[in-house]
Design brief:
Length: 444
């Protein structure tokens, strides 16, 4: 069968693969009907950690059930289903309280990440009864397709921030996830939403969501001009962003109740912290922060050097003193950039005392995000930061689908390009990488 796979970092191609088999009695074989490439596919290809050879990509899919294991009770061959992009490992004992990372880190991020995804003619999904969802009668397949990842992720940002009645909310990034977060914030009762973005098609959709119950104002970070409110300390805006200034101005310097990071860059986090309210403010992030590969490589080299020297010099070989007590000298370690030094660990037992002289520094090369000390109140601002993988699984997806149907929302409007055939998926991925569409649907 034909499959679009990750050959190596930055390279995808179509290959022939053997048909998958039912690997477990709780699993199902599925035929994709409608798929959508995701920015996460783009991250996996060009920025992500190493993956197994010839991994099939794709995790946004509406599919037809082809075959089921004997333990699958709720679905049968021929059923048209929505496949949750987040597929928890339901075999783990802590999955109910740690759905995204039960058993191992990112265990719920399986499909198209650790197991073959949907960009092939047939794919396997474990725990079918818990990871597939029914599509309500009368719901369009495009609306359902947007629910499997986009809406679930946007709503996760809203729910992790506990957006509630009367809140002022900032949504940073108005790609598909951010636009879904606007939908979710309105459903949760937000009174005012500032949507940060600049792409014309996205701006148009964001502005169309504004109504009398909740005003949505788009802030174009490229053209907005606004000074810091008079009297505020210059460090209150650590990046000098006019968006931060504007939100502080419009909220009488108090800041927004909730800030949802759904897009942007490494400056999005400090900006969010700067403009969220002291005491009760929550920053909820669902954005993927790509690695700075040069910094990360240097960090790895430094840590490898440090670990190697610890192995050489810190084997914890004890020498017996004259009184029979152990005496250890760790010695001096220094990485190539001088980041760590230590002359600690001298134990003197002749007098019965334990003496330590810590003189170490942490490795100073870290691929990291910045938290502005001033806006975090030097650690005491009472602001909450949350970093979340989207909620998933059948129960959550069917709940989200029901909300969309009940409130007559149509996330299919986010689809701005449509193609036919598996051979168009590669082009669609490059279109997403180049931001030529908000979302793309490919009918197979």
């Amino acid at each position: 069968m034909k499959a679009l796979v990750l050959k190596e970092k930055g390279k995808i191609e179509y290959i022939d693969k053997s048909e998958p088999t039912l690997e477990a009695l709780h699993g199902a074989l599925l035929e994709p009907v409608l798929v959508s490439p995701c920015t996460s596919d783009v991250h996996t290809i060009w920025q992500g950690s190493p993956k197994r050879p010839d991994l099939t990509l794709g995790h946004e899919v509406i599919a037809k059930v082809k075959a089921i294991g004997s333990e699958v009770k709720d679905f049968k061959p021929g059923d048209l289903v929505a496949v949750s992009a987040i597929t928890p490992d339901w075999s783990q004992p802590d999955v109910d309280i740690n759905y995204a990372h039960a058993g191992q880190n990112f265990s719920a991020h399986m499909i198209g990440k650790s197991i073959d995804g949907a960009f092939q003619s047939t794919f396997y999904l474990p725990f079918a009864d818990k990871n597939l969802a029914r599509i309500p009668e009368g719901m369009s397949l495009e609306d359902a397709l947007m629910c499997v990842d986009v809406v679930q992720t946007g709503f996760t940002a809203v729910e992790e921030a506990a957006v509630s009645e009367g809140d002022t909310v900032v949504v940073m990034g108005i790609g598909a996830i951010g636009l879904a977060a606007i939908m979710g914030s309105k459903l949760a009762g937000a009174k005012k939403i500032y949507a940060v973005g600049s792409r014309p098609d996205n701006v148009k959709i964001a502005e169309s969501m504004s109504d009398e119950t909740c005003k949505v104002e788009v802030l174009n970070y490229k053209t907005l001009e606004c000074p810091l409110p008079e009297g505020m300390h210059p460090l209150a805006n650590s990046t000098g962003s006019p968006v931060v200034n504007y939100v502080l101005q419009q909220t009488a310097t108090k800041g927004a109740d909730k800030v949802l990071i759904c897009g942007g860059n490494d400056y999005s986090l400090p900006q969010a912290i700067d403009m969220v309210k002291y005491g009760t403010g929550i920053v909820s992030n669902v954005m993927y922060f790509g690695a700075d590969t040069e910094v990360q490589d240097e960090e790895c080299r430094n840590l490898s050097n440090i670990n190697d020297r610890f192995k050489e010099n810190c084997s914890c070989t004890s020498q017996q003193s004259n009184t029979g007590a152990p005496q250890t000298n760790i010695g001096t370690l220094q990485s190539d950039n001088g980041a760590i030094q230590s002359n600690s660990g001298t134990q003197q037992s002749n007098t019965g005392t334990h003496q330590t002289k810590p003189e170490s520094k942490l490795n100073t090369t870290i691929d990291s995000l910045q938290i502005p000390k001033f806006s975090m109140g030097r650690g005491m601002a009472g602001k909450t930061l949350k970093f979340s993988l989207s909620k998933g699984g059948r129960e959550n997806l069917e709940r989200v689908i029901s909300l969309i149907k009940e409130h007559d929302l149509h996330p299919g409007v986010l689809i701005t390009e449509r193609y036919e055939g598996l051979d168009k998926v590669e082009q669609a991925i490059y279109d997403m990488k180049d931001r030529k569409a908000i979302k793309i649907a490919i009918r197979l």
